[in-house]
Automatic annotation (TrEMBL):
Protein name: Spermidine synthase
Highest classification ranks of the organism: Bacteria, Bacillati, Actinomycetota, Actinomycetes, Pseudonocardiales
InterPro entries in the record: SAM-dependent_MTases_sf
Organism field: Lentzea waywayandensis
Matches recorded under SUPFAM superfamilies: S-adenosyl-L-methionine-dependent methyltransferases
NCBIfam families for the chain: MFS_SpdSyn
C-alpha cells in the first residue's frame, strides 16, 4: 500500500494524519502519532487489512445472522462499525469516542453510512445508561494503552446490565509481555460472564514484544476450531484458547 497525506491535525491524543491510498482512491488510513488506527475503503467496507480487526470481524460473522444493536467504545475511523453495517444490514450502532477532534477530522473526509451514529463522550458514562444491546466492542486507547476504567469491575458490571440476547462482548487490548492488562481484564470478565475466549498474537504470548489480544464473551456458540485456523493463517499469527 502507498499513501499520500491529505491532512494533518492536532487531536486530543496526538498528531493525526489522514492518508489516501494511492492505489485505491476511495480508501483511507487514519494514524495518530505515526501509529495506524483505522483503514477504511469507502467502496468496500468488508476490506479489513489489519489482522486484529479481521479477528474481531470473524467473531461477529460467527454470531447468529441478522442486524445487531451495537455499542462501540473507541472508534477512530469506524472501520469495524462500517463492516458490521455492510454485512448486517439494518443494524443500529452507536460509536463513542473521547477524542472530539479526531471525530471531526474523520467526519470531514469519511462520511458514515446510515445506521451509525457517533457521540463524543467517555465510554464509562455511556455504558452506565446503555440497555438492550446485542453487541459491545471496546477498542479504546489513550497514548497506546487502554484507559484504566475499562478494566474495572464497575465497568464490567455495567456491561453486563447493558447486554441482552446472545450478550456478545469483545475487547481489543494492546498488551506487553507478561500480559498484566489482559490478566486483569480476564478476571473482570470472568466475574460477570465466565472465562472469555482469548485470541492473542503469538509474539506477545511468547514475551517477544507488544501485541494485540482480543477477548470474547458470548452466549452464542462459536466455531472455535475455525477461528483458530484463521488466526494461525494470518499475516501476524495468533492463538485461540479459553482463558490464558
Amino acid at each position: 500500500m502507498r499513501f499520500e497525506t491529505v491532512e494533518r491535525r492536532r487531536v486530543r491524543f496526538g498528531m493525526a494524519d489522514v492518508e489516501q491510498d494511492r492505489d485505491r482512491r476511495e480508501a483511507w488510513l487514519i494514524s495518530v502519532d505515526g501509529t495506524p488506527q483505522s483503514y477504511v475503503d469507502l467502496l468496500d467496507p468488508a476490506s479489513l487489512p489489519f489482522d486484529v480487526m479481521r479477528r474481531v470481524a470473524d467473531v461477529i460473522d460467527a454470531l447468529p445472522p441478522g442486524p445487531v444493536n451495537a455499542l462501540h467504545i473507541g472508534g477512530a475511523a469506524c472501520s469495524l462499525p462500517r463492516y458490521v453495517q455492510h454485512v448486517r444490514r439494518g443494524s443500529d450502532q452507536l460509536v463513542v469516542d473521547f477524542d472530539g477532534d479526531l471525530v471531526d477530522l474523520v467526519n470531514a473526509h469519511l462520511p458514515l453510512p446510515a445506521g451509525i451514529s457517533v457521540r463524543v463522550e467517555n465510554g464509562l458514562d455511556t455504558i452506565r445508561s446503555a440497555r438492550d444491546l446485542d453487541l459491545i466492542v471496546v477498542d479504546a486507547f489513550e497514548g497506546g494503552s487502554m484507559p484504566e476504567e475499562f478494566a474495572s469491575t464497575e465497568f464490567h458490571r455495567h456491561v453486563s446490565e447493558a447486554l441482552t440476547g446472545d450478550r456478545t462482548y469483545i475487547v481489543n487490548v494492546l498488551d506487553q509481555p507478561g500480559l498484566r492488562t489482559t490478566t486483569r481484564l480476564i478476571d473482570a470478565i470472568s466475574a460477570q460472564f465466565g472465562v472469555p475466549l482469548v485470541i492473542a498474537d503469538l509474539g506477545v504470548l511468547a514475551g517477544t514484544g507488544t501485541g494485540n489480544v482480543v477477548l470474547v464473551s458470548t452466549k452464542a456458540t462459536l466455531p472455535v476450531a475455525e477461528l483458530e485456523a484463521r488466526a494461525r493463517e494470518a499475516r501476524f499469527p495468533a492463538s485461540v484458547s479459553v482463558g490464558l
